[in-house]
């Protein structure tokens, strides 16, 4: 059995079980043999747990929403903070919900889990304006999803090009098989910030005339053929990230969710978002900044015609990053960026 190894920023094949230092980088994540075993056992290590509790302040009590419950690590910490806390937990991944439910069985009277998109939380739980004391969104994919080969979230050899969080809808392979050159180029350019997006898209469309792209191996080989060189692990991380975002419409969900969840916050309610790449963080930063401004009218309008008051204020001046100790213990935390906002009275 073998995996992709990273050496001098190039991709190479190395024996997986013969080298305990074998690593793979996917979406900015270093994956090691030891971490693989640990993640299977623990399912999900909550990133920036202490910082989440600091800014979310669940000890205030009330109704909270964990829109991306994953393995339930953050949810457990929130429920442990105060006996008056009640929690609504959402995830697209049915398997994640099952595992989170098992982990949180002790708190079953104070938690309700539902499968769905966090952007649809209002409808899922029939919530009214101001119903929530706090919202947490831990974006991206979980350790378990990355480490489960058949889910296809990494470029580990032989992984199917699936990438669906919910298990429903078109797979990455189906998008690669059906989209036009222009559509594929937009995915790689917008979501992967890839400079050769159109050339790569044209190569995919030309290749599928001969054979479809079914596995990570197929896509890695195609990238190498188009570029004329072995792709660096960081290149593959960006390209696979772009496909994952497209498959799951992640940025669309975030764009819908932010204003909708803001309206569900009660006065003094807090929203905490952990992002893992610049596209997510940029959207969160822009929203929190706009909500905190008194006037959002275009500069050329002489008289304010908008709301004329801030909706709340940011609790973080810039993104909060994980402590060095946490990154040393959990390398997957190193790309995390946390921002927090509080709704005004």
Present the secondary structure layout.
Layout: E1 2-7, E2 10-15, E3 23-26, E4 29-32, H1 33-42, H2 49-56, E5 62-66, H3 73-81, E6 85-91, H4 94-103, E7 111-115, H5 121-125, E8 132-138, H6 143-147, H7 172-178, H8 181-190, H9 197-207, H10 216-227, H11 233-248, H12 250-264, E9 265-275, H13 278-291, E10 312-314, H14 324-329, E11 337-343
Parallel strand pairs: 5-6, 5-8, 6-7, 8-9
Antiparallel strand pairs: 1-2, 3-4, 9-11, 10-11
Descriptive notes:
By secondary structure, this protein is an alpha/beta fold. It has helices spanning 33-42, 49-56, 73-81, 94-103, 121-125, 143-147, 172-178, 181-190, 197-207, 216-227, 233-248, 250-264, 278-291, 324-329, and strands at 2-7, 10-15, 23-26, 29-32, 62-66, 85-91, 111-115, 132-138, 265-275, 312-314, 337-343. The strands form three sheets. It has a seven-stranded mixed beta sheet with strand order 7-6-5-8-9-11-10, with helices on both faces. Strands 1-2 form a two-stranded antiparallel ribbon. A two-stranded antiparallel ribbon has the order 3-4. A hairpin with a 2-residue loop joins strand 1 (2-7) and strand 2. Helix 8 (181-190) crosses helix 9 (197-207) and helix 12 (250-264) packs parallel to helix 13 (278-291). It is globular, with a radius of gyration of 21 Å. The termini are far apart.
